[in-house]
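W.,

You were right to be curious about this one. When I first looked at the sequence I had no strong expectations either way, so I just let the prediction run and decided to look at it fresh. Below is the sequence, 349 residues in total, followed by the output.
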Amino acid sequence: MDVRPLNGETDWRNCRAEVEALEPAVAPNPWATWHHLHLAWRLAFPSAKCWLVMLNSHDGPVAAGIFREEESRRSIKTVKTLRTLDWSTSNLPPLIVTPERAAAAYCALVRRAGQLHRTTGAELFCLHQQTESHADSLCMALAEAGLPFRRLQTSASQIIETGPFKAENPRNKSRNVRRNEGKLCDAYKTSPVLFRTRGQVYETAAQEGIWDDLDRLWRQSWQNAYLESLEPGAGAKSFAYFYESLKEWSRRQWLDIAALKLGPRVIAIYINLAIEGKVWLLLTLYDQQLETYGVGSINLYKMLVDSTARGDRELDFGGEATEWKRRWSTTERPVYQIEFALGGPFGRL
């Protein structure tokens, strides 16, 4: 195992080729990429020291992870902790690794906890936003190694499975959508239309004026207002993550856009990632002046009908459980946080 500090932009750039070389063989995951990890560090944790962890075999690197260093409180003690760069994500895997090698890689990471402790000085390892399959594999490795750990369910991802959604024929949802759509048509003398495109579509969306509308809708959104109330500039940082990722997601042919248009004007939009039949719903915005017409729900319903026709298996709302997502979802999947000891008072290595 190779453990190296990333002290600034130069170190990040120097490790890019190594990390990206692993990505083509990995099951597609928007956050198991150097691009996401670098952007999360630059926007959310620019002053944090990070560590690159590379697991190698005789064939070369087989897995990589980048973790940020943080001082956290445990009772009366301040503890150096390594944490995942999980900002603005829904499900971040512990390592960038192929599914076939994941279990072995987690075991190797756990067996080398002592090396991590001695190299980084960290006493705890904390992994956020873990799916059940990732959590199961990692906890099994920890139990076999006899390392103290804690597994905590922190939230749940709401999932809309298109098969059950279609089979259930959700009349109450379609009835409400039709009623609101009728009111909107009466008020503005035109019907809303779904603009849906995916793949390498950044330029197409730009020509449609979608990105200007995205900026306009974000500025008036409740998400932006809420983030800015917590910390000045937080809303701009969050939007920058999405905006600066658009070209990269388009290049990888993951970008999926569902925009509800009233004439030439976008009144609601979803920015998604569509990968091999699964759609991650990342950002939803709507025109606040048209909130009473339920334009966000109209857009979601039309997008679901379109996704069903396209053959998408499921749409994932992500790891933040909220009531309106539950109303639309057909199932939930738990999201976990896992902490385990690297050394010091939390474990003898």
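Here's what jumped out at me. The mean pLDDT is 89. And, maybe more interesting for your project: The longest strand covers residues 60-74.

Coffee later to discuss?

I.
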